[in-house]
Amino acid sequence: MPATKLSSDKPVSDVILIGAGIMSATLGVLLKSLDPNLTISGYERLDAVAAESSDAWNNAGTGHSAFCELNYTPERPDGSIDISKAEKIAEQFELSKQFWASLVQEGPLPDPKSFIRTIPHMSFVWGAANVEYLRKRYNALLHSPLFKGMEFSDDPAQIAAWIPLVMDGRDPATPVAATRMAVGTDVNFGTLTRSLFNHLKGLPGVDFHLGHEIEDFRRKADGIWRLKIRNLASGESSIVRGRFVFIGAGGGSLPLLEKSGIPEANGFGGFPVSGQWLKCRNPAIIARHEAKVYGKPAVGSPPMSMPHLDSRHINGQKELLFGPYAGFSTKFLKKGSYTDLFRSIELGNIRPLLYAGARNLGLTRYLIGQVLQSPEDRTAALREYYPAADPADWQLEVAGQRVQVIKKDKKEGGVLEFGTEMVTAADGSIAALLGASPGASTAVAIMLDLVQKCFPDRAATSEWQARFRQLVPSFGQHLADSPGLTAAVREHSRGVLQLDA
Ligand SMILES: Cc1cc2nc3c(=O)[nH]c(=O)nc-3n(C[C@H](O)[C@H](O)[C@H](O)COP(=O)(O)OP(=O)(O)OC[C@H]3O[C@@H](n4cnc5c(N)ncnc54)[C@H](O)[C@@H]3O)c2cc1C
């Protein structure tokens, strides 16, 4: 790192947050709730908070609970359904709701209706084999308290009553089935992030800077991290210091992790996948749909390509979108650079990248197919979920950018992961979050884990343990095994967050 002047003798911060998305917002508020005396400095390269993946139109706003996402309930070779991942994700979202409810009760979060609403989560399939899969999935989930209340139907009239658009003009000869969870949610992660940062910025010991990009890192023998930061308006660079650094830079996390030089960063690579939606602009159609309807991804396509016809509530307005259509771009951030992918390639990750590429030809073929899609192809995909759709009612919008994690693997050489990956230094002084699925919904579970890993001594004290349980009443307990606890925390969150179900 070249010599650069120290930022006006600024004292060493306890915590430095890089990036102003939902992850940094959640970590910052959680840490200040645990210890109000911590000093926190935050830096964001853009001129606004939550302007990348966390913004409402850049993601689908699904409170991922595995109620409707079929990729979390794979069929085993013996035909049975594995619900372990679905239970984990449903449980993680309950942690998020509990944390947000505590922040509403304690004051940091304003009107809950500004960021979370009830919307039924539904799965919809067609064809005999898929109907059979959905029935088996429903029967398997029924036994878990986290999926209590799920409804199943293969009656076209019942499904039409739930989701009329999906059944309008559908061939009656094709068997169909749907499940419905009334307690699903739509979350405006953009509003939530902005509210969390508004609260954080007003707390003593917190300084926050927009338009500042982290360029480099160095750690000296004193154990303190030095970060080189560029003020993008003035072009000036300076150094700030911190005891703990969180790289919450979304798609920009991988290049920063590589610059940190920690051995744990070795062998990670990233593969960017961009997204697009069809957004409905006909209010009469928008009004006729009241659900998030997820289908089965096409064979060979990645899990995040799962099509959905999705009611949203954004800035007080009801919306409807269909997608996502995947695409390929070499950018790691929506407002990033086309050189991002190439600059992330290093000696340490070239082998995993090549192996993961060679083993995921299905994904490559899928992405090429998506990129080559014509407007007619997109309408055909929409009509699988809304057969009577008129393309004139829909416009194409660009969603956020995801960077899928590529990890070195002893057996395979390199593997492509579709989940999130927290990378922490052995001494807990720096952590980075890579990947984007199930994403924002699980921010609270991710940050609870991070705090326990990176602040182990303080997290183990009776003071922090008690505060964890105050903020997240089911902290440390297993909801999937506890019908009573699941019902109690769900009811509490429902009441405080003013959810309808
Ligand atoms: C198409 C799509 C659909 C999705 N749907 C859902 C969904 O339905 N439900 C769900 O829960 N999740 C969903 N997600 C995932 C979710 O959006 C992300 O997991 C989440 O927003 C990531 O938050 P973040 O804080 O890590 O990143 P971001 O919100 O991207 O924030 C990172 C910030 O870091 C800044 N930054 C980057 N580099 C630097 C640097 N060098 N210096 C300073 N600042 C920097 C960026 O400008 C950005 O503001 C979806 C994502 C996509 C792309």
Write structural notes for this entry.
This protein has 501 residues and is of the alpha+beta class. The chain has one domain: FAD/NAD(P)-binding domain (3-Layer(bba) Sandwich), CATH 3.50.50. The protein contains 16 helices and 19 strands. A 9-stranded mixed beta sheet has the order 5-6-4-13-14-15-12-16-17, with helices on both faces. Strand 16 and strand 17 (413-417) form a beta hairpin. The protein is globular, with a radius of gyration of 23 Å. The N and C termini lie far apart (54 Å). 48% of the residues are buried.
Short description:
This protein is 33% helix and 25% strand.
Name its key features.
25% strand; FAD/NAD(P)-binding domain; globular; 501 residues; nine-stranded mixed beta sheet; eight-stranded mixed beta sheet
Give me the CATH architecture, please: 3-Layer(bba) Sandwich
Helix/strand class: alpha+beta
Number of domains: 1
Which molecules other than protein and nucleic acid are bound? flavin-adenine dinucleotide
Radius of gyration using CA atoms only: 23 Å
Helix content: 25-40%
CATH topology name: FAD/NAD(P)-binding domain
CATH superfamily (homologous) name = FAD/NAD(P)-binding domain
Strand content: 15-25%
Shape: globular
Mean pLDDT score, rounded? 92
Could you list the spans in which at least 5 consecutive residues all have pLDDT below 50?
Answer: none
Tally of contiguous helical segments: 16
